[in-house]
Amino acid sequence: MLEAFPLMPDQIVSEDGQLQPGETVTHTPAELRALWEQMTLVREFDRKLVTLLRQGRTTFYAQASGMEATQVGIATGLRPGHDWVWGYYRDQGVALGLGMTLHEIVSQMLGSNSDLNKGRQMPHHAGSARCRFVSGSSSIASQLPPAVGMAMAQAYLGLDEVTVVTFGDGATSEGDWHAALNMAAVQGAPCLFICENNQWAISTPVTRQTRAESIHIKARAYGMPGYFVDGNDVLAVQRAVRTLADGIRAGSGPVLLECLTYRVGSHSNADADAEKSYRTRDEVNAWTSRDPIERLERFMARQGQEIGAQDRAQVVARIHRDVEDAVARAEASGQPDWRTMLEDVYADTPSHLRHAYEDLRQEYGSGGTK
Amino acid sequence: MTATSSTGRQDTPQDTAPTAPETVTLTLIQAVTEALRGELRRDDRVVVFGEDVGARGGVFLATAGLQAEFGVRRVFDTPLAEAAIVGAAVGMAVRGLRPVAEIQFADYIGPGFDQLTSQAAKLRYRSGGQFSCPMVVRTPSGGGVKGGHHHSQSPEAYYCHTPGLKVVMPSTPYDAMGLLRTAIRGEDPVMFFEPKRLYRAAKGEVPTADFTVEFGRAAVRRTGTDLTIVGYGGVMPDAEKAADALAAEGVSVEVLDLRTLVPWDREAVLASVEKTGRAVLVSEAPRIGNFMGEVASRIGEEAFGSLLAPVMQVAGFDTPYPYAQDRVYLPGPARILNACVKALQY
User: Fold this and answer.
1) What separation in angstroms does the CA of B215 have from each of A111, B183, B263?
2) A130 to each of A44, A80, A82, A116, B131, how far by Cα in Å?
3) A304: buried, middle or exposed (CB in 10 Å: 19+, 13-18, 0-12)?
4) What residue ranges do the domains of chain A occupy?
5) Other beta carbons less than 10 A from residue A367's beta carbon
6) How many C-beta atoms surround the C-beta of residue B200 within 10 A?
């Protein structure tokens, strides 16, 4: 069961797929299947986007492989469209789980005309008002203080909503992280802080981010409970998020949850040689053997719900087709018109931007993209 | 409506006409307080917070009495953390409040800079207009109070350089009240710099009825034909003293107060310079990267043919703000006058 400040991360399913002593799982076969499909979607999305990157059709990609249980567990532990999430750039699994479509996410990654964000940011900064998933900034940990403010607003307005903010282990070294946790605790803001501790901030290991024995234990200093789960156990992550979110709804105040997981791939295409430059193949192999999708599959098999090779292949093939279709539609939508570059800087259009529009019109005429 | 007072000084045009003719005399800081009080009464979404703003009422007492009237839910103290104060304002605004955050001194915003430039300024743009953060950061700014360089700087240019933020600096009680209302009622993040040396030095008539002052419109403080002085914020009284001295010598000086830097009133400045042929730009921020560099650039680009003399700048020096030489550093009437004479004699 979930307890504050444990020494070991909470698990429901062991690495070999066995239910931990004292645990029960009430998920229906359909619910387990849905979790498996969602995690498989995140994995296969990674594979397709890496291919897209190698083809030069996008410019940047940050894999979430290895972190599927954490991200799917977060999304499915919340009330999509009701709770709010300030994510971080690697949260494609969270975004998909909250209801963003493949087409919307791919459109953002390509900066295409169909991007909800109008092609304003590099890949991995999707956002959707419909899904209450706030478009992110690249600066590390800067999403935390706004998440606290949003939670304060929810309390002020008497809303039955939780604000979740996610971040990596590197973010916990930033001043914004400390300021946010302190502010949330002092204000009693209904905010759920979730560290997706994948143990590497590009090439810096978590042991060079902090001398504390874990991230979750730091919550004690701010006056809030800290929880610790096995981030490769989707059932444990989902339960923790659901339990803590419901607790926050009931007035518990802010909490910190650390999900211990591992980024199996590189940080991004900027460090595709991660295994050569800063970490060992043995370490990666050790974590690969703890694969969160395979763990769920082993558990499902023990429940009599084995996923056959043909079944898996069909699901994977469908996902690949869906991603290819999303990419094709995004590419077909073209690039955003030059006029949109000057929109949304302000709610109105001040005179200096009207002048800029006139300058650009001289160059681009009445046509669209140049 | 534009009124001319008995002193010959041109009053600020009114953007929305008051419904009653009554006025009251307020200092600039009293105008800030009354604007906040009025907005707190008018709109339940408005919340006021920062360090010491509650029971104390702020170190300058800009929020004095507001917590007593509106309670700790709407007017509250926060931890001493500019990143949290500014960042929380962003999130509150996204979820539908109208946060007005106070940073105790503009010099202290540093830890909140990332929140302003990465979050507040860009949220609307980066989300394609899906999200916005209508919020105000109020902060005392500028020198003249013997504060040394951590209580006297004029950092407005940093924020003018960040698209997405609006930047305001009033110099009169009327403008402080009208501009602050506009800031709170608007849909964008606003940096509201209050020239601290004018908090109690600037007094003026303010309508008791509701009014606002539009952003992006300079105030013509006096009309003239021989030379244009452009300034904003704390330098305005000294700019007018220089204009008085020149008037005594028979020189007709036009004085413009920009009031808002982003957006700024390019049309008013260009029209004035085209009329007078001479421009003296006054601000107290260090000269390199000073906002007036942008004004000078525009005049050079678009009114070059009208110029009878080079555009002159009077600014702070490119040093950290000094404690002992507080008055030497600031562009006082003598330095402004010298620049005007140089332009007139060119």
Assistant:
1) 33, 9, 7
2) 25, 10, 10, 10, 11
3) exposed
4) 29-336, 337-370
5) 8
6) 13
Determine the Cα–Cα distance for residues A362 and A355; give it in Å rounded to an integer.
11
Quickly name the fold that domain A29-336 has: Rossmann fold (3.40.50)
Pull the structure tokens for residue B129. Answer: 């207009």
Cα distance from N-terminal residue to C-terminal residue, chain A:
59
Any residues with CB less than 8 A from the CB of A150 and at least 6 apart, and which? Answer: A84, A86, A163, A191, B91, B92, B94, B95
Encode pLDDT of A65-117 as tens digits.
Answer: 999 999 999 999 999 999 999 999 999 999 999 999 999 999 999 999 999 99
CA-CA distance, B101 to B58, in Å (whole number)? 11
Which pTM was predicted? Answer: 0.94
A contact test, residue of B98, B127, B159, B262 with most A CBs within 10 A = B127
Helix, coil or strand: residue B71 = coil
pLDDT at A266: 86
In chain B, DSSP finds a helix count (H) and a strand count (E) of 12, 14
Residue A14 tokens, joined: 């062991």
| Residue contact A179–B79, C-beta within 8 A | yes
**A358 Cβ contact list (under 8 Å, min separation 6):** none
Q: In angstroms, what separates the C-alpha of B251 from chain A's closest C-alpha?
A: 32
Substitution target in B43, B47, B82, B95 with the highest count of A β-carbons within 10 Å is B95
Higher-confidence residue of B5 and B301: namely B301
At B136-150, the pLDDT tens digits run: 999 999 999 999 999
What residue ranges do the domains of chain B occupy? 23-207, 219-345
For residues B321 and B148, is the Cβ–Cβ distance under 8 A?
A: yes
Instruction: Give residue for tokens 């604000």.
Output: A163
Strand pairing category for B136-141 and B98-102: parallel
Could you give the CA distance from residue B89 to residue A146 in angstroms, rounded to a whole number? 7
| B81 contact residues in A (CB cutoff 8 A) | 179, 182-183
DSSP string, A6-37: -SS-B-SB-TTSPBPTT------HHHHHHHHH
Q: Is B259 on the interface with A (CB under 8 A)?
A: no
Enclosing H/E stretch for B28:
helix B28-42
Q: Which two tokens stand for residue B104?
A: 């105790």
- Determine, for residues A187 and B78 on separate chains, whether the beta-carbon distance falls below 8 Å: yes
DSSP helix, strand, coil percent of chain B (3-state; round to 5): 40, 20, 40
Q: With beta carbons under 8 A apart, name residues in chain B contacting A343.
A: 129
Q: Is there a common fold for B23-207 and B219-345? A: yes
Tell me how far apart the alpha carbons of residues B339 and B230 are, in angstroms, rounded to a whole number. Answer: 12
Which CATH number applies to B219-345? 3.40.50.920
Tell me yes or no: is domain B23-207 CATH 1.10.565.10.
no
For A306-329, b where at least 16 C-beta lie within 10 A, e where not — what string?
A: ebeeeeeeebeeebeebbeebbee
Which residue do the tokens 């699901």 mark? A315
